[in-house]
Amino acid sequence: MGIDVLRKEISGIDREIIVLIGKRQRIAAKMARAKAGEGVSVHDPARVKEVLDDAFDCAVEEQIDPVAVQEIIRILIAMSEARQRECLGEGNLP
Q1: FRET pair for 48, CA 20 to 30 Å: which of 1, 10, 59, 76?
Q2: pTM to 2 decimals?
Q3: From the CA atom positions of the chain, what is the Rg in Å?
Q4: Distance CA 87, CA 90 (A)
Q5: What is the pLDDT along the chain (94 residues), one digit of tens a residue?
Q6: Architecture of 3-87 per CATH?
Q7: What's the start-to-end Cα distance of the chain, in Å?
Q8: Contacts of 42-45 spanning 24+ positions with Cβ under 8 A
């Protein structure tokens, strides 16, 4: 398989990842309303640990760098929390 074909495949996967991030952000907006309704804080350290631990385990299963995967998940969590704060009128996202 040639480089151009492989690059096109990777680009397609990148687009899929971006679509999934968008979906995650839309769910984060719903989560903000649910948390507000239940009086729960946007940041939940126990949940963050659970998500990071799950990401680590999944990365190990997929035989990819679990520390790097955790860093990506940390970014996604930060984006989610920022979206939630924005939905609650506490942030500055579009």
Answers
A1: 10
A2: 0.90
A3: 16
A4: 7
A5: 899 999 999 999 999 999 999 999 999 999 999 999 999 999 999 999 999 999 999 999 999 999 999 999 999 999 999 999 999 988 665 5
A6: Up-down Bundle (1.20)
A7: 41
A8: 42/81, 42/84, 42/85, 42/88, 42/90, 43/81
* Residue reference for tokens 């929390």: 81
Determine if residue 2 is left, alpha or beta; phi over 0 gives left, psi from -120 to 50 gives alpha, anything else beta. Answer: beta
8 Å CB contact between 27 and 21: no
Residue 79: strand, helix, or coil: helix
93: which 2 tokens?
A: 């996202």
